[in-house]
Specification:
By secondary structure, this protein is of the alpha/beta class. It contains nine helices and 13 strands. It has an eight-stranded mixed β-sheet, with helices on both faces. Strands 5-12-7 form a three-stranded mixed β-sheet. Strands 8-9 form a two-stranded antiparallel ribbon. α7 packs parallel to α9 and α8 packs antiparallel against α9.
């Protein structure tokens, strides 16, 4: 099996270096593709100085799904894995990928955070302060992935930063939906279920996530955006299932649950009534926008892929590309492509 590994990154130079070190140790034969958003922390220079990265793609978008698709576009392996820049694969990861893809077209494994205070590979203890880490798209677990049944369809979610696909499956999906700022992996899980494609789970395909420090660059992880959480939730449910009682019930239950949680924060003095009202407004605006856009997307693409914003829809993601592979324009070749350029809760 020829494996390509796509690593999207944004302002996470040090954590990216640790991720690449782990890939070099456990998957030395893999084609490694780093897709760098508009980083301002020296990521480009660090990656170009390494000899274990085959391709560096520079994009101007901050959206992870654009980065994923940009990497998928240039990958040549018959299997393509996605690994977040702040994840570190463990020993046996490469073998677990091969084993999982022998059994199913998609395979994923657990991602667990590195505990605060535990020494990192660089010999430094992680600080105990909180950074602005984006929530994982599934809860870390050693026993198996999150599953749900929606509108009569069994959906198996996967960790968007630790997953591998057979190439033909990614082609049939047309990659990830670039409309979504968050929740792209969950959307892909719905579409895989529509295609009756199984997602395998391999505990040995394990990765550990290094959490950001309070003083680190943002690492591409944005603070929680209520509007976009619900915009993405409504969009992917309406796009994939249409207007159904089940969809409306699920969307409403998420909104009510979050409203109650926010109200409890007000009672405890951890928030204010005005902030609670502003959050409610953001939720309603997000639901309205996502529902409208989801129905439009459903009409635009009636194929099993349900992806009107996928890999095939544009050719201007990359603003520069450095390709060390044989047959490229030379070591560090630069190609200007012109134009510009996950984890949300719920379905």
């Amino acid at each position: 099996m020829d494996l390509s590994v796509v690593v999207p990154t944004l302002n996470g130079r040090d954590r990216l270096a640790a991720c690449l070190d782990a890939l070099a140790a456990d998957a030395p034969d893999a084609e490694v593709i780093v897709v760098n958003g508009p980083s301002a922390d020296g990521t480009t220079g660090m990656v170009r100085d390494r000899d274990d990265v085959d391709v560096l793609v520079e994009i101007s978008d901050r959206t992870v799904n654009v980065a994923r698709n940009a990497g998928v576009e240039v990958a040549t392996g018959d299997a393509v894995a996605l690994v977040d820049y702040d994840n570190r694969i463990g020993p046996g990861w490469r073998d677990a990928v091969a084993d999982g893809l022998d059994a199913a077209p998609v395979v994923s494994g657990p991602v667990t955070p590195i505990p605060r205070g535990e020494p990192t590979d660089r010999g430094e203890a992680e600080p105990t302060g909180r950074g602005e880490a984006e929530p994982a798209e599934i809860e870390p677990t050693e026993t198996g992935p999150e599953r749900n049944r929606i509108a009569g369809r069994d959906v198996t979610y996967f960790e968007g930063g630790n997953v591998a696909f057979r190439r033909d499956t990614l082609r049939d999906l047309d990659g990830f939906d670039e409309y979504l700022r968050v929740g792209g992996a969950r959307d892909a899980a719905h579409r895989l279920a529509r295609m009756d494609r199984e997602v395998a789970w391999r505990p040995a395909m394990a990765a550990r996530k290094e959490l950001p420090t309070p003083t680190a660059a943002d690492g591409g992880r944005s603070a929680h955006e209520w509007g976009w959480k619900y915009r993405g939730l409504a969009y992917r449910l309406l796009k994939n299932y249409g207007v159904r009682p089940t969809v409306l019930l699920r969307t409403g239950s998420h909104a009510v649950g979050d409203a109650v949680g926010a109200a409890k924060d007000v009672v405890r003095g951890e928030s204010t009534p005005s902030r609670w009202a502003a959050t409610g407004r953001d939720v309603l605006v997000g639901l309205a926008g996502g529902s409208s856009d989801g129905l439009v997307a459903r009409r635009r693409d009636r194929s099993p892929a349900r992806n009107p914003n996928g890999v095939s829809t544009r050719a201007d993601r990359a603003v520069a590309k450095y390709d060390r592979r044989s047959g490229a324009d030379g070591d560090g070749a630069r190609e200007s492509d012109g134009g510009a350029g996950d984890g949300a809760a719920g379905e």
